[in-house]
């Protein structure tokens, strides 16, 4: 699959676009770089865009923007007028359960996360095998709207399966 480059963005649906963008800026230093609603108007109905992105009939996309998150995948933020589902999925649920943010200092980012209004599930902890090593630490937290986010710091190399042809991708500092 030489034509595949990697993940360009992760889309998340939030109850309040402005608050979610402000949170992602404060917690992770994200930068809002594109706005579909500024560029094309809005709101967008399921009749307008549902055939392209699966927007459920009877709902509208109120705001859509792309945020740049340093050296990793971008985040696309959607505000839907009547979202479905639950706001607090976890790793027991089908589908995408969380996103992970690679960080240089998990303690500092965890503090910024809570200062921005997020809630940590625990204190930062040392990672276990095969991700263990000096300085490899992580923590999970929930955004104000319930999205589960993992923050991970990798200061040491990882133990890969014998015969693995490549290692995990990490953003460059």
Helix content: 10-25%
Q: What is the mean pLDDT?
A: 92
Order of helices and strands: EHEHEHEEEHEEEE
Roughly how many Å is the radius of gyration?
A: 18 Å
Query: What portion of residues belong to β-strands?
Result: 25-35%
The computed structural class is alpha+beta
Question: How is the main sheet built?
Answer: 5 strands, mixed
What's the number of domains? 2
The number of E-state strands comes to 10
Instruction: Enumerate the spans where pLDDT stays under 50 for 5 or more consecutive residues.
Output: none
Number of separate helices: 4
C-alpha geometry: globular
N-to-C span: 27 Å
What is the fold's blueprint, element by element?
Layout: E1 9-14, H1 17-28, E2 31-35, H2 36-40, E3 44-45, H3 46-53, E4 60-68, E5 74-80, E6 99-103, H4 106-115, E7 119-120, E8 125-126, E9 137-142, E10 148-153
Parallel strand pairs: 1-5, 6-10
Antiparallel strand pairs: 2-4, 3-4, 4-5, 7-9, 8-9, 9-10
Helix pairs in contact: 1-4
Give a description of the structure.
The protein folds into two domains: 1-84, no CATH class; 85-159, Roll (2,3-Dihydroxybiphenyl 1,2-Dioxygenase, domain 1), CATH 3.10.180. It is α+β, with helices and mostly antiparallel strands and 173 residues long. 20% of the residues lie in helices and 29% in strands. A hairpin with a 5-residue loop joins strand 9 (137-142) and strand 10. It is globular, with a radius of gyration of 18 Å. It has four helices and ten strands. The mean pLDDT is 92. The strands form two sheets. Strands 1, 2, 3, 4 and 5 form a five-stranded mixed beta sheet that branches.
